[in-house]
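Table S5 (text form). Sequence records supplied for joint modeling of the two-component complex.
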Amino acid sequence: MDIGFIGQHIWNGVMLGVIYAMVAVGFTLFFGVLDVIKFSHGDVLTLGAFVGLATYLGLQRLDVMSPFAQLIAVLALSIVSMAFLGALIARYLVLPLRNAPPFITLLITLMVGTVIRESIRLFYPNGSNPQAFPKLLPTESWHLGSFTLRVDTLILVVVGVAVILLVHMLVNHTRLGLAIRAVAQDSETARVMGINFRWVVLATFGLGSGLAAIAGLMNGLYYSEVYFGNGTMLAVIGFSAAVIGGLGNIYGAILGGFLFAAIQIATVVVLPLPSAYKDVVAFCVVIVLLAFKPTGLIGEKSSERV
Amino acid sequence: MKAILGKKFGVTLVCAALVAGFTCAANAAETVKLAFIGPLTGSNSAHGLGGRNSAELAVKLHNAKPDSKYKFELTSLDDECKPNVGVQVATRAAADKNIAVIIPHYCSAVAVATVDVYTRFTAPVIVWAAVHPDITYKRKTREMHRVSATLINQNKVAAQFLTGDQKYRRWAAIYDTTDYGKSMFSYFDKFLKETPGQMVGTFGVGADQQDFNAELTKIKELNPEIIYFAGLTPLGIRLLNQMARLGITAQFQGTSGIVGEAFVKGAGELAEGTVAMYDNPPVEKLPRGKFFVTEYAKQKYNETFEAYGPYAFTATTLAMDIIEKVGPDRAKILDALANVKDYDSIVGKITFDDYGQNINPTTTKYVVQDGKWIDWDDSEYKTGKRKLKGR
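The corresponding structure-token record, covering 697 residues in total, follows.
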């Protein structure tokens, strides 16, 4: 195989991995801080993309045609509204059930996800159909032999990696991050030390849901399409990625996301199976990995999370 | 006692007279139910809604005729292009004996799954769009009929035309792994083997798959001259978008599943030059097609009639014409459907063979030119002013 094609496959994998990793990081943040699995994460992602699309269409009506202004408005509105929604879900649905069995929270968030998904389908005009997502980024291509690089893909990968790094910095090098980590490690002691527990939880859910909005927009920009069911599969993949990496560990989530993308692509490239089987193969690998390392690849050695 | 009896008798007489009167009045314009089934929601709904509108139009036009014996009422059901949902709604329609004829399915995967339901309930069926051969040809049934063609001929014409006239030689194929995509691909592959054309790579993909970058990168490496795609509109649009992202310049060839406005609208400029075969010349070119186009326009529907709208109109009109002749009895309708020969319709003459399949397909080559599907023979590609990719 020509080096250019190998590069192209790797590049495709990187792009896919960035989206998966961002979803997985969200799952891991929620789990790390509150030991909950928030299954509405994928649908928040979809809603973020739809808010972005609606913002774009609104701006078109208002004759705001500058792609840069459109992009900024789409990003801002989508991220802020989803962060707010995430905090709302935490405040009114997750926190009150803190002392209930964990599966209740899981069930509640699953239902919230279904409500979001079906609401998009029913209330967005023509919501059952895939919607064309605007091309807000430049689409010029560079050809290096058999390797083709489009500027928008490059921007998406760079932004995705930067966002993941920022989250990492935020968690490890800021006061908020310190508070998040303290709550993750031992919420009771953290409270005694004067950390506002409720505020930290809301901030974490806001952060995770804002990340979901970015992932949703990236997904829309990359595939030029959004669909009310986008989030379902992404959530399952993101959650699996977080689990194989080690739920509660940011590095694990990133590793899991890229690993999942790599398996999917390798299935198509290497195995003589119809490529429709790529998800089957990828999830089988997840099962095998979990059988050998139930705590994930970067499992928790100590009680430290996040 | 006598008086009471007499009173009772009188009441009975009045009742009988009333009932008879009502029956007579009802006979004057008895309402007969028909069922239309198609994907009214979901990613293929553009085609489903276009078909539904066309069927509705046929009913409206018929009901407006002063001399018709029956008034018709159309029930529209949504199969969502999903076999499991299709079986549910098919059962609902077939089990309702008040529904005289069922006009079902755009998606082949759904139609293949529902054949058994219709035969079990001996419900007269005229399929309006789905093209998989098994729907009529897998076994002989009394119930199944189809006005649209099977997918066999379009693949034969495609293989001959693209290797002959256009001299393409190296193909890669992407097909969805539903009955529809697999069957399309197997026929094309079979006919391609009879030509100098060669298949260098094949990829079966999920019908709702989103990412094709891995498959397309592999295709880019195989460097085919032309990519054959067997699947429906949403997947076709995704593929074109991702081909552009990877800088793949091969010619794109679809099947009847992407013919329609939804595809050119969704794919925009990328659709230019896409080739596909479809079972009929453009409807406005047919002797009675203009009538349909004008009447459809008058209704001011939100959706266009799409590729198979004329067939939905034809199937509905045929059903109503037969009921006018033999009445709304399912057994009699089935007998009449078995004898349909040279029935004059907006898509040309309809004749059902022993399997209920219309045997008059006029496969036509189509190409997208300036955002419209155009008969190849009328296009600038035919005259040589524009050229397909790599020619």
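Note: The longest helix of chain A spans residues 3-34.
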